[in-house]
Design brief:
disordered N terminus; binds copper (II) ion; eight-stranded mixed sheet; six-stranded mixed sheet; alpha+beta; Immunoglobulin-like
């Protein structure tokens, strides 16, 4: 078509258009005789063949292929300097990582699995929105041994009416059920693991045979999914203790695997009298876009929700008291990451027990704030001196917010001691 007479072509075009307009089928025009139709291509008249002009030469094709390969190689080399390309789908397939997690080329798949979100497909129970944790667990008597059953599983749990997390739970509640025994009891606790990963249980602070202490791979084989392990010991202490996972603790305890273990003394202890008691178990949570990640002090792992006994304020309990009454608060450091300076408004309390040990009268101190570090317990007795709503809360203000928002004056690690005259 090169060298085609444009005036002729234009004329032909005009003819064709005219013919089309005069009800000729569009396909028919190729057969139409055209005056002066002298091109050698056999192309329908009026069509311009530009293929020769746009067709790539071999040299051009080679250049593009070479450039593509160079860019691909550069991309791979750059990626290999930044991320770990050795990871396979078997290592981290399906893992959802927290936003902000730093994943460099030396980040192993195990670290990613450790920080990954709870897989929603592993949830086997949805707790009612108003369910509470820390319920009394009743023992069976087996030849004078108090026998308890604990079962781990993945559940959905409301920390607020509108905020549902996916947690690891003992007996489908967070915190796990309260085990309350008496000094001198022999206890047998059968732990069945229904988690997607292995676990164990540690009896924090107790004097017991080493094989029942719980550290995975150190004193026992981890309890594999679907398997059980029975712990048995004699309670020779009294006080406030707790139990928690001791296998991948940074993940599992941060997702809810802990519970109170209270041992009452066989004979009265030398601590001041009190009228009520309340146990406070602390936890940090990381919940983003419907996924629950184990909160931890790693980039991307910082918590945005905080709970007392599995609930964030304003869903925490309110304790009703009367002026003159005394309450024993048992603070349990079931929190995994932060030291929480727990403060009570309305006057000082007396620290009567630390880590399950009675504070001798001569060493007893009064405070209004006590730092509850991970693993620590503080038993304090607070007297209701004035009527009103007295706050019990963490004194790190971010820990008294829900996803950085205050609701009804507070959030997270806050609860109310409501004192009437
Ligand atoms: Cu705090």
């Amino acid at each position: 078509m090169q060298g085609h007479d444009h005036s002729k072509m234009d004329k032909g075009d005009a003819d064709t258009k005219k013919s089309d307009a005069e009800k000729m089928p569009a396909t028919a025009h190729a057969e139409m005789p055209h005056k002066g139709d002298d091109d050698m291509t056999g192309m329908p008249h009026g069509t311009v063949d530009l293929s020769a002009a746009t067709r790539a030469t071999s040299a051009q094709k080679f250049a593009w292929a070479f450039l593509s390969l160079v860019l691909l190689a550069a991309g791979l080399i750059f990626s290999a300097t930044v991320v770990n390309l050795n990871l396979s789908a078997r290592d981290v397939g399906g893992a959802i990582m927290p936003p902000g997690m730093i994943m460099l080329r030396d980040t192993p798949g195990e670290a990613m699995r450790d920080m990954a979100a709870v897989d929603p497909r592993h949830v086997t129970f949805v707790a009612p929105a108003n369910a509470r944790g820390d319920n009394d667990l009743q023992p069976r008597l087996e030849n004078a041994v108090k026998a308890f059953d604990l079962t781990t599983s993945v559940i959905k749990w409301n920390i607020l009416p509108y905020e549902q997390v996916m947690g690891y739970a003992f007996n489908q509640q967070i915190p796990g059920p309260r085990i309350r025994i008496t000094e001198g009891d022999r206890v047998r606790i059968r732990v069945t693991n229904n988690l997607p990963e292995s676990t164990t249980v540690h009896w924090h602070g107790l004097i017991l045979p080493n094989q029942f202490d719980g550290p995975a791979e150190i004193t026992q084989e981890p309890i594999q999914p679907g398997e059980s392990y029975t712990y048995e010991f004699f309670a020779q202490q009294a006080g406030t203790f707790f139990y928690h996972t001791h296998d991948h603790v940074d993940r599992q305890q941060a997702l809810g695997l802990y519970g109170a273990l209270l041992i009452d003394p066989r004979t009265p202890q030398n601590i001041p009298a009190y009228d009520l008691e309340y146990t406070v178990q602390l936890q940090e949570w990381l919940e983003r876009e419907g996924y629950t990640f184990p909160a931890m002090l790693m980039e991307g792992g910082l918590p945005n929700f905080f709970t007392i006994n599995g609930k964030a304020y304003p869903s925490t309990d309110t304790v009703n008291m009367q002026v003159g009454q005394k309450i024993r608060i048992r603070f349990i450091g079931s929190n995994n990451n932060f030291i929480h300076p727990m403060h009570i408004h309305g006057g000082p309390f007396t620290v009567v027990e630390t880590d399950g040990n009675v504070v001798p009268e001569s060493a007893r101190i009064q405070k209004d704030t006590v730092n509850v570090g991970p693993g620590e317990r503080y038993d304090v007795i607070w007297e209701a001196r004035e009527p009103g709503k007295w706050l019990l809360h963490c004194h790190i203000p971010h820990h008294t917010t829900n996803n950085n928002v205050e609701e009804q004056g507070a959030g997270g690690l806050t609860m109310i001691l409501n004192v009437t005259p």
